Structure formats: C-alpha cells, structure tokens
Amino acid sequence: MEKLLKEIEKFKLEIAAFNEGDAETFRIKYLGTKGLVKAIMGEMKNVAAENKKQAGQLLNEFKLFTEAKYDELKSSSNNGKKETGSNIDLSLPADPLPLGSRHPISLVKNRIISIFQRLGFAVAEGPEIEDDFHNFTALNLPENHPARDMQDTFYISQNPDWLLRTHTSSVQVREMQKGNLPIRIICPGRVYRNETISARAHCFFHQVEGLYIAENVSFADLKQTLYFFVQEMFGKDVKVRFRPSYFPFTEPSAEMDISCLICGGEGCSVCKKTGWVEILGCGMVHPNVLDNCGIDSNKYTGFAFGMGIERITMLKYQIKDLRLFSENDVRFLKQFTGAV
Ligand code: DAH
User: Fold this and answer.
1) Which of 72, 93, 241, 314 is 20 to 30 Å from 6 by CA-CA measure?
2) Of 16 and 232, which is predicted with more confidence?
3) Are both 232 and 122 inside the same structural domain?
4) How close is the Cα of 167 to the center of ligand 1, in Å?
C-alpha cells in the first residue's frame, strides 16, 4: 500500500508537468490500453484484502486526475503541442516586411559624394546656424555689399550676427581657416533662404560645395573636374558649356550648363526652349577670400563650385515640383525603392 501511494505521487508530478507532445501522445502514454493507468490498476491484485477499498479509491482518484489533465490538453488552443520544435513549418512564407527607401535627395547626395571621392575629395561639414563672417564677410561680401541681397537671409533674433546659412560656401571658409593645405573637399548640406514656397523655390534646400586649393591650380583643372562629374552623373552623351558669370567669392566666375536631358538639346519646357539647363556656379577662388581665411594668395590658387542637389535630382529623375521633396508623401518616396 505504501509503495503504491509513493508511485502514485510520483506519477502525478510527472503528469502535471507533461510537455512531451500533444494530447494524443498523452492519451496513449497514460490512458491507452497499454498505458500507465491501466498498468497501475493491475497492481490491485497485489494489494492485501483489508486495503483493497482504500487502494481502489486512490487509484480511481488517480485515474480522474489523469483524465482531467488529458481534457485540459485537448482543450488548450494548440492541442497541447509544444510551442517550439519540429511541428513548426519553417518553410511557410513569412509576413512581408515593408521595405523603406532612401529619399531621392539622399540618393543623389551619396552619388555626388562618391563621384568626387574617386577624385580624392574628402567630405567636410559645417554648422547650419552660421555667423555673418563665415557666410558673407570672409567670402568677399562685406557689410552693405549689394550681392548680399541676392540671398534672402533668415537672421536669428537673439543675435544679429547669427543666421541660417544661405549656402554651403560657409564650410569652405571653415576649412580654409584650419590651414591644412592642400585642401580638396566637398561640403554637402542643407541651406536656408527666405523664399516663398513654390514648384521652383523653397525656404530650405540642399547644396554641395566643392573646393580645391593647392599650388598651381588652374581653370583647366576646374573644367576637367566638372566634366568628369557630369559624365559620371548623367552619362557620356551629355554636353557641357560654361558661361561667364559673377560671384563675389570667385574671379573669374562661371555658370555651367548641361544639354537638356529631357529633349536632348532640341528645346522643351524644362530648358525653356534653349536646349541647356544650368546646374552649378563655379570659379577661381578670389584672392581676397584666400587672404580673409589666412591663406597666402601669392602662393596658392584654387577653384570652387556650388550646386543644388534638388536641381540635379529633378533633372536625373524628371521631377517637376520642388515641394515633393519635403512633403514626404510615401507614394512619391516609394518610387525610389532600390534606386541608385
Ligand atoms: N554659393 C553659391 C550659391 O549659393 C554657389 C556657388 C557659386 C558656390 C560659385 C561656389 C562658386 O563655390 O564658386 O548660389
């Protein structure tokens, strides 16, 4: 009797902790014709006559206990199956994870960076909140210079000397001041101007500035660098032309046009029937700028250029409205999934 009691206690613990399979496995192991409950019932014959009644109650209770566990397994949501293990079909297709895409401005910015990196240009960055000196004065735009009006500036009310940079040319100044020559950098970043938002203008946009300063840098170096850029960016068939222009920080200055990608030079609305679209400003760094930044203008020369990333992106992907870049409508953005 004592032995039977001990056995039953042991099996009860085992049954309570059962997790080796589903309800059917349990039934076969414990309640089937060759199961444990049947086998234990068979022990009755070894029990002394005076204990038979007590043993009968005990075994009956054990049977009920086992059946209750079986019912519990059957009614559990996964039929008593273990959560992990061979019953999970790992070959089932997973729920799709929607993939994001890079913003077209980032795509084009990264492409521009990688093209110039191949020519040995390093990336430099500067603050978006600038002071007057770095944004204007050092770049040969002293106070009251009329060319300051070319850029509608956002000033910071706490300090009249602070402003949101109107171009990435301010980063040139910071790099020149460091004095580690030669300098060969590009400066991508966001710039701000107080413009009314329309399809062609925005109060913030992105530029990439380029600067190369060493001994004997010439205008021919500038042209060759920009030819290479255009061919890598837009393909070998695109034609390039330089037009004389004016920027206070370069002398001589030029603007560079490329043959219209939309009409191939025939004339269309994008190129305003001229066959050409302007993509950047450039020139030889003005000696005053070198001097303002502590570089000996008798020894060193350099070229600089600046382009709008939005402009390049619009041409590359034939986007007609600048506002699309900042509205972040996913129907627009997801068209660039996988684009490079
Ligand atoms: N900073 C000019 C702008 O924002 C662009 C530019 C023109 C940059 C000529 C240059 C340059 O470095 O040489 O419109």
Assistant:
1) 72
2) 232
3) yes
4) 7
191 and 283 belong to one structural domain: yes
Structure confidence by residue, pLDDT tens digits, 269-280: 888 899 999 999
Q: Please spell the DSSP secondary structure of 13-60, one letter per residue.
A: HHHHT--SS-HHHHIIIIISTTSHHHHHHGGGGGS-GGGHHHHHHHHH
pLDDT of residue 94: 87
Domain hosting 280: range is: 104-336
Give the pairing of strands 129-131 and 122-123: unpaired
Per-residue pLDDT at 256: 98
Rounded to whole angstroms, what are the CA distances from 22 to 16, 34, 257, 265? Answer: 14, 18, 75, 75
CA-closest residue to ligand 1 atom 7? 281
Does residue 93 sit within a domain? Answer: no
Pocket-testing residue among 282, 290, 293, ligand 1, by greatest number of atoms within 8 A of Cβ: 282
Write down the pLDDT at residue 77. 63
Question: Do 241 and 125 belong to one domain?
Answer: yes
pLDDT at 300: 98
Within this chain, do residues 58 and 197 fall inside the same structural domain, yes or no? no
The answer to whether the CB of 307 is under 6 A from ligand 1 is no
